[in-house]
Design goal:
The complex is a heterodimer of chains A (264) and B (231).
Chain A: H1 15-47, H2 53-68, H3 71-85, H4 88-95, H5 99-129, H6 132-140, H7 145-160, H8 162-175, H9 187-198, H10 201-230
Chain B: H1 7-46, H2 50-65, H3 68-86, H4 96-122, H5 126-134, H6 139-169, H7 181-192, H8 195-223
The chains are: A mainly alpha (264), B mainly alpha (231).
Transmembrane segments (chain B): 20-44, 65-87, 93-113, 154-178, 198-220
Keywords (chain B): Cell membrane, Membrane, Transmembrane, Transmembrane helix, Transport
InterPro entries (chain B): AA_ABC_transptr_permease_3TM (IPR010065), ArtM/GltK/GlnP/TcyL/YhdX-like (IPR043429), MetI-like (IPR000515), MetI-like_sf (IPR035906)
Chain lengths: 264, 231
């Protein structure tokens, strides 16, 4: 069934090379986009919890804007609109970036900042889930606000939210496919191109689907590994798999596992 | 660049409005189909039916692992083939992008809603089941009158948040060249060259609708929490 992937294309490659190149762009976008998202997301998430009203409002505004505009529309804003509203010289310079990079950078910024808004909400939830005593103990020890966040709050919050970050990791690699709308030849775009060139739609989409499934599995297992390595003892959700016969209250929705906060 | 001129948007408004109505219709249909089908899928998994349960689990995992755009491409290709088979063979019936979008979103969202309901089912207190047994309710009545209403109520904030995400995701039908809100804007932008104004305005429309809906969800969540539940 997949034999067609080994056939020669018009440009002297094999179809499977197209897929591999698409996978490369997908991975590059997801990987670098993730670090942008994580860095911005942690800062904005912290911003939402600080006392300073102006900072908290700005952080909230960021989350509202980036979470409530569809990622495809954001993609168009970065790709089509941004060069037009910048000063002419700068806008033209952006438009002249050569082909793959001219789509790659807007897509990278778009996915990074979009995912950052979602991570920020997780970080905020993690910080708010910490017992008050942590902050009180830190101030009793004479730690400044900065040191409290740096050494007490953020490290614990990040360890708490790793299970829910899994769905953000899954989200960002799936959202890389949106970059095909601005002309980046990532995995889904390559699959479509192969299907159009060979009429073997089943094979082309099937191969791409298997690759995405493998990525999902790797992302899931990788995050589970990280979670097990850094989990705060006693806060594990591992017990969740066992039927909670002993728990008698209906669990609050917020504590439901990561399956709940779903991303596409 | 030329200065911004939003009067073109005003002229284009009827077309954009019809696009928005399509986006909303797609959201509504996908919500209803997805929720009903998703509840069925969740129950199949909940009852741990032998073969069906595994199939459903595989389906849900698959849908959650691949991008929605790829799913749209898949269905655009597969649905005509499946329909022709159901219709007693013959050649594939082209059903058009609109139907593809409705079918795809319904089936795709079912996977996400089923995950929400499945976890909700697991969270129901065991005593509820025991009480139903003590009252000699049939399995059907147990789920219909006691269990599912609680699950839906508990899970409703998440179901609604998911529906807001669904509304935003309907913009992806752009890849099928359909005329939803984004599709309408991009078609007009190609005609009149005013893509800056077009995209900025629809971004604001999406932002306004989604964030108003999120505020409503937050309000409902406070207002209709089941008494005595830790929130």
């Amino acid at each position: 069934m997949f034999a067609v992937l080994l056939e020669q294309t018009a440009d002297g490659q094999r179809y499977i090379d197209w897929l591999v190149s698409g996978l490369g762009w997908t991975l590059a976008l997801a990987f670098f986009g993730w670090w942008i998202a994580f860095a911005v997301g942690v800062v904005v998430g912290i911003g939402r919890t600080v006392q300073n009203r102006a900072v908290a409002a700005l952080a909230r505004l960021y989350v509202e804007i980036f979470r409530n505009i569809p990622v495809l529309v954001q993609m168009f804003l970065w790709y089509f609109v941004l060069p037009e509203i910048l000063p002419v010289a700068l806008g033209n310079a952006i438009k002249q970036i050569p082909p793959p990079w001219g789509s790659f950078f807007p897509a990278l910024v778009c996915l990074g900042l979009y995912t950052a808004a979602r991570i920020a909400e997780q970080v905020r939830a993690g910080i708010e889930a910490l017992p008050k005593g942590q902050v009180e103990a830190a101030s009793a020890l004479g730690l400044s606000g900065y040191l409290t966040y740096r050494h007490v709050i953020v490290p614990q919050a990040l360890r708490l939210i790793i299970p829910s970050l899994t769905s953000e990791v899954m989200g960002i690699y799936k959202n890389t496919s949106v970059a095909l709308t601005i002309g980046l030849m990532e995995l889904t775009a390559q699959a479509r191109q192969i299907s159009e060139a060979t009429f073997q739609t089943f094979t082309a989409f099937g191969a791409a689907t298997l690759v995405y499934l493998a990525l999902a599995l790797i992302a899931y297992q990788g995050m589970a590994l990280i979670d097990r390595a850094v989990r705060i003892p006693g806060t594990g959700r591992g017990e969740d798999a066992i039927e909670p016969a002993a728990t008698h209250a209906i669990q609050p929705i917020d504590s439901l596992p990561d399956a709940m906060e779903v991303v596409k | 660049m030329n200065s911004l001129d939003f009067s073109v948007v005003l002229q284009a408004w009827p077309y954009l409005w019809s696009g928005l109505l399509f986006s909303l219709a797609l959201t509504a249909v996908a919500f209803v189909v997805g929720l009903v089908l998703g509840t069925c899928l969740a129950l199949v998994q909940h009852f741990e039916l032998p073969v069906l349960g595994r199939l459903v689990r595989g389906y849900v995992a698959l849908m959650r692992s691949i991008p929605l755009i790829l799913v749209l491409f898949w269905f655009f290709f597969l649905v005509p083939i499946v329909i022709s088979h159901l219709g007693g063979g013959g050649r594939p019936v082209p059903i058009g992008a609109t139907w593809t979008a409705f079918i795809t979103f319904g089936l795709f969202e079912a996977a996400y809603y089923s995950e929400i309901i499945r976890v909700g089912l697991r969270a129901v207190n065991r005593g509820q089941f025991e009480a139903c047994q003590a009252l000699a309710l049939s399995t059907f009545d147990t789920y219909r009158s006691v269990i599912l209403p609680q699950v839906l109520r508990v899970a409703s904030p998440i179901i609604l948040s998911q529906t807001i995400i669904l509304f935003q995701d309907t913009s992806l039908v752009y890849v099928l060249s359909l005329t939803d809100l984004l599709g309408a804007a991009s078609k007009l932008a190609q005609l009149n060259g005013r893509l800056v104004e077009m995209y900025l305005v629809i971004a604001v429309v999406y932002l306004a609708i989604s964030s108003a809906a999120s505020q409503c969800v937050a309000f409902l969540r406070k207002r209709y929490a089941i008494a005595g539940m830790r929130r």
